[in-house]
Amino acid sequence: MPAPIILDHPLIQHKISLLRDKNTGSKDFRELVSEIAMLMCYEATRDLPLKEVEIETPVAIAKTKVISGRKVAFVPILRAGLGMVEGMLSLVPAAKIGHIGMYRDPETFEPHEYYCKLPSDITRREVIVLDPMLATGGSAIDAISQLKSKGVQNIKFLCIIAAPEGLEALSKAHPDVQIYAAAKDECLNEHKYIVPGLGDAGDRIFGTR
Ligand code: PRP
Ligand code: URA
Q1: Above pLDDT 90, what percent of the chain?
Q2: Which of 14, 57, 132, 148 is 20 to 30 A distant from 185 in Cα terms?
Q3: pTM over 0.85
Q4: Does the CB atom of residue 103 touch ligand 2 within 6 A?
Q5: One of 108, 121, 176, 208 is an active-site residue; which one?
Q6: Among 52, 57, 86, which Cα is nearest to 69's?
């Protein structure tokens, strides 16, 4: 089981501090989520396979490398995962996008799927599932189970803030999935919100509260 990778680059830590601030408004919050996703994408695509090609420079022939093999798909978990898509696409513009809609029941905290639309060639792609928040892990576990039930084999999960409980549950349920998080927080509170966290990511991105 690969250990979760915590991407604690100084630029990411600085931006997360701004994200956590309750006085940060939706416009800035959205921009920060997108920028953090872009920085995380750089690390999460570090193992993309390369192949050697020859390119004619104005001076000589260069033996150089380009990305080869499997293509990439991003799958945001709605709603909050949508906030990460633009930043990811700024580094991998040719990626295809799937969507999985999940909401967490406010009483039971159980995830419920309400939407799933995936690229037709998703099984031939490396899939990176996006959600800024990994709390109990229920939403990520179910979204990844859904992808596996459709035949997807190569999956990574990228979140900004993770609770220890969610990291443990997701690693246990899907030990083949590499998890990337930008911060590992302390715990969950009685409402299963991440402490200290940043509140409700969907509401803060879309200004719905
Ligand atoms: C939030 C968040 C995750 C989920 C995390 O979504 O974006 O999807 O909760 O919690 P979990 O790890 O305990 O499942 P929410 O259900 O609030 O929906 P929203 O994005 O539409 O606001
Ligand atoms: N979902 C969020 O948006 N925030 C949390 O802290 C937990 C679940």
Answers
A1: 95
A2: 148
A3: yes
A4: no
A5: 108
A6: 52
